[in-house]
Amino acid sequence: KQWYQRRVAITAGRVLTQYTDAVTHLIFPHNDSMTCPRTAKYFRGIAGGKWILSNQWLIQSYQSKELLHEAPYEMQGDTESGRTCAPRSARIARVLKHPPLFANTSVFYVGDIRILPRDHFSSLLEAVGVTIVHSPDSGSSISQLTYKTQTKVSPLIDSDVTDINTVKEVSGLAPITAQWIVECIAAYKVLPPEDLV
Q1: Helices 178-187/86-95 angle, 10° precision
Q2: Residues with Cβ < 8 Å from 20, sequence gap 6 or more?
Q3: Which of 51, 143, 157, 197 is the most buried (most CB within 10 A)?
Q4: Antiparallel, parallel or unpaired: β 35-36 and 82-83
Q5: What is the Cβ-side half-sphere exposure of residue 52, based on CA atoms within 13 angstroms?
Q6: Pick from 93, 109, 84: which is nearest to 176 by CA?
Q7: pTM higher than the cut 0.90
């Protein structure tokens, strides 16, 4: 960490220990295919359209005594999904002011979500345009919830924890899974939900 701080300071930048909207660049170690490990910060970087770069950008910028152009050092994806070009796609979408990946999508949680702590996962969902609504109580129906939010509302589950068919039977809706949302972010495109159900 101190190594990074010294090099970033020379470029008039600063190192933040927590992800915030003020972050402009995320630096990761990479492999030969310019992919990096999946982390919550990696997904937040994609969701925010940030530069997600190899640590070589920082090293070579330091050696050159100037900030090098980022594009040759941009990560191409993650080690699980491979070369999806999601960091680039998300960054360009942000620059062009495209709507978020899941604009006009509303969900309510059903059961536990283990993929990330719920507050982290909720922040990630909101960063990609998902509206989180309270689940319908015994006095309201899915149709009332849909009317209030002006969007289709879907139950959000962790398929490792909650049975999809039970949720379909009880709610009358096809749930979406936390894993599906993560895979969509990893590809930076909305994938067919049946691929992961």
Answers
A1: 80
A2: none
A3: 157
A4: unpaired
A5: 31
A6: 109
A7: no
Q: What is the pLDDT of residues 26-82, one digit of tens each?
A: 999 888 899 999 999 999 999 999 999 999 998 898 888 888 899 999 999 999 999
Quote the tokens at residue 20: 């915030």
Other CB atoms within a 10 A radius of the CB of residue 100 amount to 17
**Per-residue confidence (pLDDT) for residue 149, from 0 to 100:** 41
Residue 35, amino acid: T
Residue showing tokens 């796609």 = 89
Average pLDDT over residues 91-116: 91
Sign, CA dihedral 21-158-154-133, equals negative
Alpha-carbon distances of 47 from 63, 86, 119, 174, rounded to whole Å: 31, 10, 15, 25
